Amino acid sequence: MLTQFILLVVLSVVLMVVDHRYSYLSHVRVWLNVAATPIYWLADLPSQIVGAASEAVVSRGELLEENTQLKAKNLILEQKIQKLASLTTQNRRLRQLLNSSEMVNEQVVVAEIVGVDPDPFSHIVMINKGSVDGVFLGQAIVDARGVMGQVIEVSKVSSRVMLVTDTSSRVPVQNNRTGYRAIAAGTGNPDQLELLHISNTADFKKGDLLTSSGLGQHYPAGYPLGIVKQVIYKPGQPFSQVFVQPAAEVNRSRLVLLIFRNKNNTTGKQQEANHQ
Hints:
The chain is an alpha+beta fold.
């Protein structure tokens, strides 16, 4: 046994010396490396499998986290788009409102509707202007399209407005085509008003424009109230029914105009409202 070991050691030394001086065994070493390559690959295969599995797990976790972050960013972007659309609509309506104010002679102040009366049988809203802004009882409110209502209650920083569609509302109007005067009453329907006590001989037609007549001292003359949409004549009855489509967007407008007809009148009515 010892003899074999000594022979192997001597053989190894001889081979190293020969290989070092004459390079006779270089080709043999190359072929041995080629033959041993599959063995090295098989030996390293378990570690490669473990590494690939770990990388796959980490990659899946990163993908899930990235997906969650992208969903959150997408939700934020959608919210911003919705807000942008809302602001665009508000800006368009504000431009319409300001354009309409240029067509009237009265002084106007822009107000915003900030509340709605919860009573389903009343059409009353709250605006963000009060006595400190010069608002007074009975003051007319219009939107970009026409008469919207009048102030019925004033506090320091807010006011309550009764819309023209409320059942208690009465607006003196005039037929723009014929000059015929009448009273438009709210019906509780946001899309309909009715003219009171219209005789069967009165000349009203579908499509007639009705404007505020200026009588009653609340609504200045010349503001659109609505368009006649139906006239019902009743044979044998003294009065006919005339239904009107409101010009103002009573259920959609958020920005409105407070009408100040003249400064002296405004100041007097403001003092009266504050005193009350």
